[in-house]
Specification:
three-stranded antiparallel β-sheet, extended, 221 residues, 7 helices, alpha+beta, two-stranded antiparallel ribbon, 3 domains, N-terminal domain of TfIIb, single chain, 7 strands
Length: 221
Amino acid sequence: MNTPRLDLTKIRARLESAKGPLYWKSLEELAGTEEFQAFVRDEFPDRTPDWNNAANRRNFLKIMGASLGLAGVTACTKQPPEAIVPYVRQPEEFVPGVALYFATSMQMGGVATGLLATSHLGRPTKVEGNPDHPASRGASDYFHQASVLTMYDPDRAQVVTHNGQISSWVAAQAALGAAREKAAIKNGDGLRILTETVTSPTLTAQIKSLLKDLPGAKWHQ
């Protein structure tokens, strides 16, 4: 838009005759010239180029067609050859094409819901409600359905780590045992257990047994 010369005399007169505070973003808006009003009424102000023009529409389609073509070229990546070998000792319960079903549960808001997990060759693929569970009676919601995706989350912890270094379960158990022995010297004073809401009777009994042996320890949920 070509900005016209502003008549400052008219702008001053308008300000002097105005009543109450005035708010504007530019002198052009304050002046209220025809050019500025046309600029405001335009659906796409200062468009470059004008895509409503037939010639520019053809150029737009050419550019988009080239972009889609280049995007397709980048997808044509040849994967390296991979060897597919059978089991040396195939587990007895694994039959290709035949699913296995496991009863499990999922806790949400301190309430556990009984579920059935479908597994193919050791990989969970589907989650449904357990019809024999009194809470779900075979029903499930989208949280239950989506939970199977967390098994394939690339950020999911796959190994035991300690200070950012890969460790082992044996080392983790040894570290926990050493921490318990150290806390036992002070009758549990200084030992803290932090958990989410626990509804498992087994886990609750284990924690209470630990607190009984170490009365100075504290359990925070």
